[in-house]
User: Which sequence fits this backbone?
């Protein structure tokens, strides 16, 4: 790839076409725009939610929430949740990307 080659892929280019969803913080019914190319935590924060967070990389679990409805995907192989927690609907918004409209409760 040449230094000025316009066909070179951008390192931060989204791997999924951008689609917009709505994320709802069930603790106060706040609804925010949530594109699938942005973490759920960032969408919540940009929409004015005061969601707890710390590490922003899926290890500290400060931001853990329970998906009341909707689906998320992770770009990490192991996002800091056990298989049981995933099966029960828990998510880490700091590394979760929405795949549908979301309703999530803190903790």
Assistant:
């Amino acid at each position: 790839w040449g230094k000025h080659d316009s066909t070179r892929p951008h390192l931060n280019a989204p791997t999924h076409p951008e689609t917009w969803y709505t994320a709802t913080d069930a603790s106060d019914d706040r609804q925010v725009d949530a594109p699938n190319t942005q973490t759920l935590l960032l969408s919540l924060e940009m929409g004015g939610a005061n969601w707890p967070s710390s590490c922003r990389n899926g290890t500290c679990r400060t931001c853990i929430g329970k998906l009341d409805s909707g689906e998320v995907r992770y770009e990490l192989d192991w996002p800091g949740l056990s298989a049981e927690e995933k099966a029960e609907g828990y998510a880490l918004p700091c590394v979760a990307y929405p795949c549908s409209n979301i309703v999530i409760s803190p903790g």
Notes: Residues 65 and 106 are 4 Å apart (CA to CA). Confidence is low (pLDDT under 50) at residues 1-13. The chain is about 10% helix and 30% strand. Strands lie at 20-25, 30-35, 65-69, 72-74, 90-91, 96-98, 102-106.
